Amino acid sequence: MTDQETRPAAPAPALRPIRGAAHCAVVGLGLAAVVLAARAVWHVRLALAGQPASGGPEHRLPTALEDSYHVVASLSAAVTLVCAVAFLLWLDRVRDNARALSGTAPRYAYGWLFLGWVVPVGNLWIPRGMVADVHRSVFPDRRLPSVVNWWWGLWLAGMAGGVGLVYSDSTDEVIARAYTGVVPLLIADLLIIAAAAAAALVVRTLTAAQQEHIARGGY
User: How far apart are CA 65 and CA 137, in angstroms?
Assistant: First the structure.
């Protein structure tokens, strides 16, 4: 008797529930958009107030408005972390389901789920590639939903404006930028808010498509 005859068949990978993860991701992205909008309002308030005659915040004690901006910035960072975790948990689940439904391994290994966002140059296309791979592995003949490209284009444009969901500058440096040139900050804020909204649509679109495929007996 050959090994092929005696070796038991490997069990098919189980599908993971995604509705709850998708809901959490959408809520997280919505909260991120709200705190980003609040941060933009504080940028406008700082610009209208004008920089004190004593100079930037690094040379003196902060004003009450600057103190309140620090609170808004800290809240934004906390919500951003929750949003990122919720989005990655959703992406992890739909990637696993795509593998179970298609019978093929994802194009990007598991580690790229996290490294893809921080590795220089690679972070320009790997996150979008992972999302697109989820769709194409299950629907190879369907066109990629346009909202995926809108999301990624808005995200890259916001990053090019020097922001992202978290500023690379210190909070005091951002305050100084708001005093001296608020328009670039507001443009970047609006781009990232739009990217968060588009990401929520990506989550809803890919989740609905995957659940439709499962309901039709695609597994």
Answer: 50
